[in-house]
Design goal:
Number of domains: 1
Largest sheet: 3 strands, antiparallel
Distance between the termini: 55 Å
Strand order of the largest sheet: 3-2-6
Helix content: 55-70%
Strand content: 5-15%
Oligomer: single chain
Number of strands: 7
C-alpha cells in the first residue's frame, strides 16, 4: 500500500492538468481558473484537490502557486514566452506521463473526468473564464480573499493497490528538495580539482598484474 503526501498529490495533479493541453496553460491565472473549474465540478466536496479563495482576477489558490513553484524548482515545468503571454508546459517522460494518468484515473476518477472537461474549455479566453468564475454562486457570496472552498484534509494518504515502488517514483519525481540536493552534488563534483589517475590500473588491474 503506497503512501503519498498531500503536496505530492497536488504537484502530480498540476502535471496531469498541464499534460492535457497540447501547448500548455496560457499563464498562471488560466491554470488557476481551470483547476478551480475541475474542483468546483466535483460532487464529493471532501476530496477537492485544491483550496481556492476569491481573488481580484477570479479564483486563486495558494496551494496551486506553491505546487507550481516546487515543480519549477525540480525542473518539471517549462515557462515559454509566446508573444505577450507566458505558457506553462509539463516536462514528462512517456513512462511518467502514463503513471500519472493511471494514478488519477484509478484514485481520483471524478476529478480526472472533471479536469478533462475543464481542459476542453481551455481554449476559452482568460476573460471568459473569469466571467464564468464570477458568475458561480460560491464566488458571488464570498468577499475578496475569503475562502471559496478548501482542499482535502489528510496530509498523507495511503492508496490501496498502489505499489510502494510506484509511490516512491511518483514522490521522487516531484521532490524539489531531492532535486536541489542532487544538483548541488553534481556542482560539487564538477568543481573538484582534476586529478591524474591511472585508468588502466583502475579498470584493467588484472591485465596490468599479468603483463
Amino acid at each position: 500500500m503506497g503512501t503519498l503526501s498531500k503536496h505530492t498529490i497536488q504537484q502530480l495533479a498540476l502535471l496531469r492538468a498541464l499534460n492535457l493541453w497540447r501547448e500548455g496553460a496560457d499563464g498562471p491565472m488560466h491554470l488557476h481558473r481551470t483547476l478551480w473549474a475541475a474542483d468546483a465540478a466535483c460532487k464529493d466536496k471532501r476530496w477537492r484537490l485544491f483550496g481556492f479563495k476569491q481573488g481580484r482576477l477570479g479564483p486563486y489558490s495558494n496551494e496551486v502557486a506553491s505546487a507550481l513553484n516546487d515543480l519549477q524548482s525540480s525542473g518539471r515545468i517549462d515557462t515559454i514566452y509566446d508573444g505577450p503571454s507566458v505558457r506553462i508546459c509539463a516536462k514528462l517522460p512517456p513512462t511518467m506521463r502514463r503513471q500519472i494518468e493511471v494514478f488519477f484515473g484509478d484514485y481520483f476518477p471524478e476529478w480526472n473526468k472533471a479536469m478533462r472537461r475543464a481542459c476542453r474549455n481551455a481554449a476559452l479566453s482568460n476573460d471568459i473564464l473569469a466571467l464564468h468564475a464570477r458568475d458561480d454562486a460560491a464566488h458571488k457570496k464570498n468577499a475578496r480573499s475569503e475562502p471559496v472552498f478548501s482542499s482535502f484534509r489528510p496530509s498523507e494518504i495511503e492508496f490501496e493497490g498502489l505499489e510502494d515502488d510506484v509511490a516512491e517514483q511518483l514522490s521522487d519525481f516531484v521532490d524539489a528538495t531531492l532535486h536541489k540536493a542532487l544538483r548541488q552534488r553534481v556542482l560539487l563534483a564538477a568543481d573538484r580539482p582534476r586529478q591524474n589517475e591511472d585508468w588502466r590500473g583502475i579498470y584493467f588491474d588484472k591485465v596490468r598484474e599479468t603483463a
